[in-house]
Every structure is written in structure tokens, then in C-alpha cells.
Amino acid sequence: MPDAPSRQRSVLTWLALLLNVGGAAGCNGCGSEGDLIPEPSGPVLCVSEVGDTVCVDDGEPLDWGVVAAGDVVVRSLRVSNPGDQPLILSSVDLIAETPDVVLFDVELCRGEQCAAAEANLGATVQPNDSLEVKLTFSVETDGLFPAESLRVLHNDAPDGEGVYLRPFVGTIDGCRDGFTDANSSIDDGCECELIPGAVESCDGIDNDCNGVVDDGIAGTGIACNTGLLGECETGETACVDGVFGCASVTPAVDEICDGLDNDCDGDVDESGSWSSFDEGMSGGNMNDVAYDPRHPGVVYAISGTRVYRSTDDGKTFAFQGEAPHGMQKLAFPPNDDMSILATSGGGLLRSLDDGETWSVISLGGLAVKAIMIHPANPSRIFVGSLVGGGIFRSTNGGSSFAPVNEGVPYAQVTDFEGDASDVNQVVASLILLTQQGTYSTSGVILRTANGGINWTTVLQGIGGAYGLGSCPSTPGLLYAAVQTQGLHQSSDGGQTWAAISQGNSVVLDVAVAASDCATLYTSVQLTGVFRSVDGGSSVTGPLATGMDVQFPSAVKLAVDPTTSNRVLAANHSGLFVTEDGGASWSRPPEINAATVTKLAVSPADPGRIWLSSWGQGVWSRTLSSPWSKVSISTLPRDYIATVVPDPDAPSRVAVGAWTDLFLSEDSGSTFVGPSQAGNPYDIAFDPTNPQIIYVATQTAGIFKSVDGGQTWSAANNGLPAAWATGACVCQDVRDLWIDPNNPSRLVAATNGRGIYRSDDGAQSWQLVTPMLQNNRAGCLTSDGSLLYACVSGEGLWASSDDGATFLPVTLGNSDLSNVGGIVVDDATSDLYATSDFGVFSSIDAGNTWEPVDNECLPSAGAGNPVIIDDGAMRQIVVSTGGGIVALPL
């Protein structure tokens, strides 16, 4: 190493001490500019530069110039007596803060004869005579420089205090031989002694003088176990504070809600955090599945807000990330390997990290479904609305959009196909909507040849048009999945169409094998997947072996770009994969995104929780056991709207499925049914008579049975006639409550017609909330003194007179403007409510609310809450977009 690396300069100023000579500061006999005062009297001390007669003012610094640590510097000063009496020197020395660090030699000289100052004490300087003070400055250590100054005393000063004091200044630059300024800061000296051939060792010393202590130690960086808990367990060998050992790769930090033991104390997400309650669940309502054409073997699947990713052609999946809104379809920009676009209920979303995180980039607040990045120009993107908004086009990669709706009817836009050789040619499929926003029985295929400036209907009379398909190697060849007349084909880029197979079947999707354009797959409603190897002229199917669902149709199909035999099918129940062209299917087990319609716990059996789902059936579990599917053989339903255990009979449970009601008397082992069509939403059991059961339905109002569910009669007297609820024109009743003290009194909550009460066992009904006739009401729950109701847009309302009148409880509370459910904790009387913003609790009957650890929820929105209590543990359980979670109480 060089003798003086890091030659940074630092100005060192030594401490100045004031002195008085003859009672006055400064040089006796000197003027303010150093000139001699005429006719001096007595001895006068004058200090000047050698060769100069001008006295230097007392206190003026002496500049040593630029020196290196370890240099030897010699300076001389002239001490003279311009007075008229002899001047006797009593002391000539140096003041050093640490004399053992900085070494000076001080000598007095007359001509060539010099001797140490100590040997010349008492030396006399005659009038007009002088002596030379020779100062030798040397540094024998590593470059630490304390303050120094020259002091000269003489006997004739008053009280022996006559002093001339001169501070030293200088610039230290560099290090003496054998030392280096390793940390590049000369202010703290040249701290590292160079040792030839030095090798760094784990001892807390910078052995190789590179400015870093204990770096590059042999044997470090090897994986090891620290013996600590949680995230601190995994370590690497390292030298820490001069000691070699196993250091944690991830040091302990404050606990966060991520399923990890961040603070390494042996507990995960402790302090009452929400934790997963999903054990045993599988499946989910899948919206889309798509191969990423940029990365071989990579597949994405979406369910609501959740994204799953596979890197092995769909054999296995892992949870990838979560979006802020429920997603519909995916698209992959060819000019950005990590970017993904997704349509959603809240606008166009984008991920820049392979689907881990998402944000809205445009069309915020608009529900959009179909998307196409034009194959002829990736900057041009078409997006279609979910409900009636039409078609939008972007020319800047999705940053902004403009509507292009000339010739576009009021509809849901389901799919697009673009011509790879002409950016102006696009084909779109649509399902027409009623003015209430519900599906009609009609659909159309549209085409534009001018980039969307206007659209022309090229196919109609087909019922709904659900999707389009094409093969990149065969330009102009298109397929359409439609509601009537089966599969349609166009060979001229969508200008003309013809029905080619599957008769009047409802074809929900079509996917063409990129590796073999003659092979294509279709999904037929309620039946299954079909395969064609001749371009659709003939088909084989249904192919549903292994699809463990009642209705095996798929809402989306994806064919592996490299082989026509590997296909992924996404439907209401989950994701399925085939490796043999559809002959057999299996379910990747990692998909867990159940669409929960209701959670329920019976007071008669508080240790068991029930779950109904839209696509995955009915499930049940306890705190100590995982979820298990209920009565697969006797309850063959995928679409379940509600599950209601009898609050007074632990073995009795009712299930409201799509169009039908089922009843079990043996805790769900077997069910009797179906009975009472009408899409049941809620079931109420008379607490005094097990034969009396009430059912609230979506399509036909309220029904009553007086024989345990064997027969039913309508109980709608006083309810309004069928009304448009958005989903249908029907008597849409969502919830029922029976007064436990007077079973003849019932309260019914409707979707769009307010809240009604009956005092005669549902023989007649009276409207009790005329102010809420445009709101959806539900989740009727009583704490014994108040009856609560959830009202869309209006939060919680409460009745203190058993449903005769209701008043708002959370008016003005934006967190609880849309309540998803409420539950009363019987042990504490605390009230819990869920909403789009999480879970909230109240200890004062809803007057004030506090969030319940919402930072730990996997997503903000939460469904209806329940409390499960097995005697040893109590937990509140809620469903979210990110799964089912529980919190200890």
C-alpha cells in the first residue's frame, strides 16, 4: 500500500490562550500594528519572525504549513528586548493537551550555539539584543494532533505572569510511513498500521487496512441453522463483532400480518391477529385461465381478486397476488415481459411484477370485462364493459381510453378478436341486456374495419354471444361460442358466419389449439367440454370424467400453445386440467378461493360452523378439524345461496340451493329434497314448533310449511307484486327473523322494497320502512333488546319495538355504509359488523365503532361474521376475498 493514501486535508487549529504582559494584552513596547513604541521603559518582550524586527501580536497564530503525519518540521522565532532594562526569561515552553502524543523540541540559540530551553531558564536578553527559539515538531504516533501553543514568560512582568502566547495552525495531509488512513477521515488520524502480507481474520480489527473490519473472512456465507425461532432460524456463517458463528439471514423485526413469525418469538401473527381458517377447503369460482404466450409453461388463473400462477403448464399452482377489484379477464402485453393487464369491476388493472401487485391504470370505477391487445399493434387495446358501457379503445397501451360505440347496442361485451395483419379490423361478441341490466336471450357479433369508428352487426339471432376463438397460423379463421345454433365459424375475418356443429347447444367458450388449428375445444352449458379435430365439423364429448361437479361446463378454456392435448378449464367450482385431450380431468389442489355465500353457527351447536358457497357446495368444520364437504351424494348442488342450522335443534340444518331447498335431520349426513323452488335465500325455524318453517326466496317471495318441509304454501299477502331487482322481475326477499318471544311475529327484509313485519305467522305483511323502499335490506339480527338490519348505502338500522319501526344507527359512518353482516357476541353483548372496509366492533349497541385489526385481513372486504365456541376457544370467523379468516376472542 502507498505511504499516504487518502490524502484528505483537514485544517487543524490549535487552542489560543490569552495572556497579559505588564497587565495588558499584547507585546510590551509594540503598537497595534507591531511597530515599536518610542522610548521604551524597562524590559520589553518582543517576538518576531527570524530576520524580521516587527513584533508579532500576542495571540497571532503560527502557521506550520502543510505537513504529513510523521513529518519533522523546524521553525524558529526571534525573541528580542527593545526595552532599556535586561529581560530575564523565566520559561520558554509549549502547551500540549496530550504531550505523550505530539512531541516538540524547544531550544534557545545564540548564533550556532543551541541548547534545550530547560537549560537556559534564567537566560538574559540585554536591551536591543535577541535570542532564537528553535522549535522542532514531530509526530511519532498515528496522526492524532492535539492543540499546541508557544508560551514565553519573563520575570519582570507583574506577579510573574508576563506571558507571550502564540497558537499554532497547520494543515495535516497524509500519513507517515507504515500507517494509512483506512477510513478516509484524517481528522481521527491514520488509524491503521500497515503489516506486510496481513490477512483479514475474525478479530474485530481491520487487519488488511482496507477500511472494513472483518470483511472477506474465509468460511462465511454458508447456510446454517441459528437455533432461533421463526424467520430468524435460517442463517449463514458470518463474523459478527469479532466472533465467528451462524448469523440469521432475516433478523427479528416487529410482527406484521403475513403468516410468518417476524419477531422470532415462536408465535405467528400473534396479539390477536387474523389467521387463515381455510384448512380443507378447495376450489373457487374461476373467472379466467390463460397461458402467458411470452413465457412457456406459465399459466395464470383468476378468482375474484385472487391471482394464481403455474410454471409447469398448469399441473400445479401457487397463490401469486391479490387485486383491489374482482377481475374478469387477463391480457399479456407482448412488449413487456412482466406486465399483465386485467379487466375488473373497478376499471382496467395492471401488474408490473407478474401478478403480485395490481393497480388501476385507467377507466377507474367502470366495470369492464372483455379485453384485447391488438395483435397488429400492442399499443392499441380494446376493452368491453360488463354492463352497458360499450366498447373503449386505447392507442397508448392502456394509459387512456376513448369510447367507440357507434353501432354498439346496450350489452355486455364478452370478447374480441383482431386481425394480425390489419390493426383496423376487430370482431366483438356481445350479450344484449334488458333496461334493468339483466341478460336477455339475444346476442350479436360486431365487426369494425376502421379501428372502431363504427361497428356493423355481422351475426344475430344467436342468443348470447359468449366468446371468440382464432388460430394465429390461419388468418381469417374465427369461431364464436353462442347461445343457440351451437358453434359458428367464419373464414373471412368475421364478415360472414355459419353454424357448424353442436346444434342448439349453449356453447359458453371456444379455444383453438395454436399448435394445430384443426383441434379445438368447446364448453357446453350444464354438459361439459367437447373436442373437435376437424375444425369443428364434428365433435366428441361431453368430456367430463374427473370433474367432480354437478354442472361440468367451463366458463373459460385455455389450450397449451405447444400441445393440443393439454387443456385447462375454469368454471364455477374451480380449475381442471387434462393431459389427454379431455379424456380425463384432475383438479390442481392449490386453488382455494371459495365464493362464500353464508357462514352460520347454531346456538344449539356453537362449536360447529357451516359454510355455503357459489360453486363449491356446502361445508362444515369445528375449531379442531378442517373443512369437509357435506353430503356430496345426497346434496348434489354446486350453487348454494344459504345454509341455516336450526337454532334450537343441533342436528337440523337447511340448505337453499339454486332453485331448490334441502333439509337434513342428521347434521348434514343426508338431505331430503329438493322441494320449494324459488332460489331460497334464507330459512327460519319456529322456535316452538319444529314443523313450522319459513323460506325467503329470490324469485317467489316467502313460503311457509306446517309439516316440517313436506309441503309449502305462498305467504306473500301484503308484499308488493314482483318488481325489477336487477337480477330479475320477482319478489326478492333476502332475510327473515322470528321473534323468539312471539313466534307469530316475523320480520322480512327485501331487495329493493324495504322491510316488512307480520304479526300473524306470515298470513299478512305490513311495510315498516317506507323510507327504504329503494334499498336492499338483510342480515336481521337481535341482541335481545334491539333488532338490527343491514341496509345498502344506509348502514345499520335498529328497531327497539320488535320490528315495528326502524331508525338509522351508523348514519354518516362511511366505513359502515354497506354492511355485509352482523353478529352479537352472547358472552359480552358486543356487536360485530363487516363491510367493504373490514370488521368493526361496538360495545354500546352500535353508537360507536372501532376497527377489529383490519390491517391483518387478507383483503378489506368481509362477509357475514359468525362466532364459534367449542368451550375451549372462541373465535370470530369471516369470509373475505382472500379466504376465510378467524380472530381469537
Q: What's the SSE blueprint?
A:
Blueprint: E1 9-13, E2 20-21, E3 24-25, E4 46-49, E5 62-67, E6 72-81, E7 87-96, E8 102-110, E9 113-116, E10 124-125, E11 129-139, E12 148-154, E13 162-173, E14 179-180, E15 192-193, E16 223-225, E17 234-240, E18 243-248, E19 275-276, E20 283-284, E21 288-291, E22 299-303, E23 306-310, E24 318-322, E25 327-331, E26 340-344, E27 347-351, E28 359-362, E29 368-373, E30 381-385, E31 391-394, E32 402-403, E33 411-419, E34 422-433, E35 439-448, E36 456-459, E37 465-470, E38 478-482, E39 487-490, E40 498-501, E41 507-512, E42 520-524, E43 528-532, E44 540-543, E45 556-559, E46 567-571, E47 574-578, E48 592-593, E49 596-602, E50 605-613, E51 618-622, E52 628-629, E53 640-645, E54 653-657, E55 661-664, E56 672-675, E57 680-685, E58 693-697, E59 702-705, E60 713-714, E61 723-724, E62 729-730, E63 733-738, E64 746-750, E65 755-758, E66 766-767, E67 777-782, E68 787-791, E69 795-799, E70 807-808, E71 819-824, E72 831-835, E73 838-842, E74 850-851, E75 866-869, E76 874-880, E77 883-888
Parallel strand pairs: 5-13, 20-48
Antiparallel strand pairs: 1-13, 2-3, 4-6, 6-11, 7-10, 7-12, 8-9, 8-11, 12-13, 14-15, 16-17, 17-18, 19-77, 21-22, 22-23, 23-24, 25-26, 26-27, 27-28, 29-30, 30-31, 31-32, 33-34, 34-35, 35-36, 37-38, 38-39, 39-40, 41-42, 42-43, 43-44, 45-46, 46-47, 49-50, 50-51, 51-52, 53-54, 54-55, 55-56, 57-58, ...
